[in-house]
Each structure stands twice: as structure tokens, then as C-alpha cells.
Design goal:
Elements: H1 2-28, H2 48-51, H3 56-62, E1 67-68, E2 77-85, H4 90-101, E3 106-109, H5 111-116, H6 118-126, E4 130-133, H7 147-161, E5 170-171, H8 180-188, E6 192-194, E7 198-199, H9 208-215, E8 223-228, H10 238-253, E9 257-258, H11 261-264
Parallel strand pairs: 1-6, 2-3, 2-8, 2-9, 3-4, 5-6, 7-8
Length: 270
């Protein structure tokens, strides 16, 4: 009985081996092709290369010559930056703190808000702050926009020209995201991508203490701090405004000097 079972097992093994050899021969044959079933159309033809959203770290790796996130060297310089303004609530409050503390910052303004709040825009200009381009309507630049992106930038520069503000050629994409083709496009327009290295996350409606905890432990020479001077409907930035004087006082005590982004990242000599 044992001999018969052993012979049977050997027979099965030979059959499996033969089938395996035949399968390998078929896979290696010139006529064999793998058929891809159900390939998503958005992946066909390498479209992922042009459509995938790139965040700030991705952009820095791909485009190191134009992406600004942290200054080089050990000099104790820091840049305060504020997105999404102007408005008539939080932007004046931020400006009050900066004026009291005698700190120059960089504001990335939205074109249609520049037109809606001209007096606040004028105050930003007159108090000596640098202004960067944050698009005209704050679209999601992580998605392909085509010619719309150029229009967004040009309309914002036109709105700033009414205040005799020359282009800084610093562009901060909304949400810090951009497609690779769009990054090339804005570079060809002469812009650098002004991103950040410390995110306060204040847009989440955080308390003063939460904003401080997101900023202070990350401080190092050359860092760029992201806060907001305006937000969407119902967005509460009061915690960010309350944290701002403490951020400034702490950094001054640590020997830091506040600079605008064009000072932290001067344009290389040609």
C-alpha cells in the first residue's frame, strides 16, 4: 500500500513539473503578450507625469533652482509670511502687530481681494511689506489649469500695479501644490516658487497655544513661517493673530532678525 501511494505521489509530481515547463515555455514565446485590462484613462499615455499634484517638498526636489523654502547658512534670519489677504478683519490686526514690533513681512495676496479691500492693500504697501502673487481667485493649482494659471497671475499683477507695486516675481501656489508643467510655465514667466518650511496650520482655526506649538519648536536659521492674514468664510484666525507677538518676541530674544523673502532669497547675480 505504501509503495502504491509513493508511486502515485511521484506521478503527480512529474505531471506538475511537466505543466510548469510548458507554462514557462508559453510565457517565453514571442507571441505571448500580457493584456492590460481596464487601464484607467487618466494613466494612459503617461498623463500622471502632467497631472499628479506636487506638494512643497516634491516641488523642491524637482525644481531646486526656483523653489524657496529655507535659506542657506547659519545666520539667524527668519521670514514671516501671510497668505490669502487682504481682508478687513485679520489683515489689519496682523499689520498692527507688525507695526508695533517693527517687523517687515511678506504678504501673498489674492487679486480679487486686492480689488475688494484697496485701503488695506494700500496700508500693506505703505508700511513697507513685500507683496507676492497668490493668484487672482485662489484656484486649486494642484490640478491642471492650462492658460488659466497665466491669467490668474497676470490679473493679480495688474491689480497690484494700481498701487504702483512692481512684480516681486514671487509666486506662492494656493495650498502649496502645483503640477510639474505649471511649475515650468511660471518659471518661464520669471517667477520663483515662494513656499515655506514651517507651517503654523492656523487655517484650521487653532488656538494661540496650538499655533505657538506648531511654530516655535521648528525654528532654525533661514526658516520661512507660513501664517494667514485672511481666510475662507467663517475661518477663525484669531489664534494666529494672538500668537504672532509672542512668536516675534521669542525669536528676537533668540537673536533672530526678521527679513522679507526677497532679502532671505536674493536673486542670484547674472
Amino acid at each position: 500500500m505504501g509503495h502504491t501511494a509513493g508511486s502515485a505521489r511521484k506521478g503527480i509530481a512529474y505531471i506538475i513539473l511537466a505543466l510548469s515547463i510548458l507554462s514557462l515555455a508559453y510565457l517565453a514565446s514571442p507571441g505571448f503578450r500580457i493584456k492590460q485590462q481596464g487601464t484607467p484613462p487618466e494613466l494612459a499615455g503617461g498623463l500622471e507625469r502632467d497631472n499628479r499634484m506636487l506638494g512643497e517638498a516634491d516641488l523642491e526636489r524637482l525644481f531646486p533652482e526656483i523653489v524657496l523654502r529655507a535659506g542657506k547658512g547659519n545666520e539667524k534670519l527668519i521670514a514671516l509670511t501671510f497668505d490669502d489677504g487682504p481682508d478687513d478683519i485679520y489683515t489689519p490686526a496682523v499689520l498692527d502687530v507688525l507695526k508695533e514690533k517693527q517687523v517687515r513681512a511678506t504678504f501673498f495676496l489674492i487679486g480679487n481681494r486686492i480689488e475688494h479691500f484697496p485701503e488695506v492693500t494700500r496700508r500693506i504697501v505703505e508700511e513697507g511689506h513685500l507683496i507676492g502673487n497668490h493668484t487672482y481667485s485662489h484656484p486649486n493649482t494642484g490640478k491642471p489649469l492650462g492658460e488659466q494659471l497665466r491669467t490668474e497671475l497676470e490679473r493679480t499683477e495688474a491689480a497690484l500695479a494700481a498701487f504702483n507695486v512692481s512684480p516681486s516675481y514671487l509666486f506662492r501656489p494656493p495650498y502649496g501644490a502645483l503640477t510639474a508643467p505649471a511649475a515650468v510655465e511660471v518659471a518661464n514667466m520669471g517667477y520663483r516658487l515662494a513656499l515655506w518650511s514651517i507651517d503654523s496650520l492656523d487655517w484650521r482655526g487653532l488656538t494661540k497655544e496650538e499655533v505657538l506649538n506648531n511654530v516655535i519648536p521648528q525654528i532654525a536659521p533661514g526658516r520661512v513661517i507660513l501664517q494667514h492674514s485672511a481666510g475662507g468664510p467663517g475661518e477663525d484666525l484669531s489664534g494666529s493673530v494672538l500668537a504672532l507677538p509672542e512668536i516675534i518676541d521669542h525669536l528676537k530674544q533668540q537673536g533672530y532678525t526678521f527679513v522679507s523673502m526677497d532679502e532671505l532669497f536674493p536673486v542670484p547675480a547674472q
